[in-house]
Amino acid sequence: MTDTRSNHPLDPMDDQVLDQYLVSLGRFAPGPGFEDRVMARVRLAPVSGAAPAAVPAVRRRRWPVVAWPASGLAALSSTALTAWLAFNFETLAGSATAAVIAAVVPAWHALLTWLAATSASLGSTLAAGAFGFGLQPLIVALVLMNLAVPVSLFGLYKVARPAVRMRSHAAR
Amino acid sequence: MTEPRFAAAADQEVVQRARGGEEAAYRELLRRYQGPVFSLIYRMVRDRALAEDLAQDTFVKALNALDTYRSEFKFSSWLFKIANNVAIDYLRRRQLDTLSLDGGPNALTSQEVAQTTPRVVDRGETPLQEVEARELGAAIEQAIGKLRPEYRACIILRHIEDRPYEDIAEILDLPLGTVKTYLHRARAELMDILGPMRE
Predict the structure, then answer these.
(1) Mean pLDDT throughout A19-35?
(2) Which among B94, B22, B34, B92 is positioned nearest to B62, based on CA atoms?
(3) Distance in Å, alpha carbon of A23 to nearest chain B alpha carbon
(4) What is the ipTM of this complex?
(5) Can you list the domains of chain B with their CATH numbers?
């Protein structure tokens, strides 16, 4: 029987022996299912070259989306009517019946008279307001009136745009 | 087991395919490195269940950050660096304990006990020599466990994972000279700890 004590591996504890035994230490293995547990927590990179799937998303209509087209249509129709009347006034007047002319001309004159009478007082009212409150309210009012048309047009654009848009599908 | 299509593929190629969204490539990286990473962490923290958790964290961090990996470095070094940081972070928060001679403290089944019992590899010894080798393996594992974490990482990476000094320096973020010094001191400490076995 071999005497193992005489050649105990650590007996001559030198570098080579320590190296030999350190190298001979094996690796440990994680428990079964380790790979799957890790994979369950890993976010895979999106597959390269594949186009992202598109999911249609229906946009909800909110009240501004409904109000914009309404105001836009109103602004457009009134502008178009005014322009049409201005450009075709002579034709309209020529083709109108005498009875209509008899009714419209005095009314038109009355309107002009009323405008002449009230414009002075309107102007003085505005001037009084400007002196009393400053020009700021007038400027704000003018700005708002000027904003009405582009806002209405934007509303019209919104309603003309398709209501369905494409959304990229998020990778899991 | 390695998939045939990845058998000859270098780590960089597998990483590239993982970046392209190939799940099999992720699994291949896991299969290649789960043993080394788990062993490193287990030897650092001396607790099997904890080592599994930390190894999982390591892989999740690494695989979710593959885009940040720069291919001019070795993938294994990058992964070991993450594993070492995870283990060191844990050890900084908590004191280490020792590894049982009869398997990890959380080993429940006989298979787990066998897996977690430290031992040197079989060299065709007699039963008596086998017992001695097993005891010696356990003693070395315990001795490694008593080293400072930095020394321990150096010893594991150099002698068990067979990494060159340059890799160890990169993994541990240390100058090359410091790695050599740590290894020298670690070996000296191991010999001191193992000295009584000569009696």
Answers:
(1) 86
(2) B34
(3) 5
(4) 0.76
(5) 4-194 (1.10.1740.10)
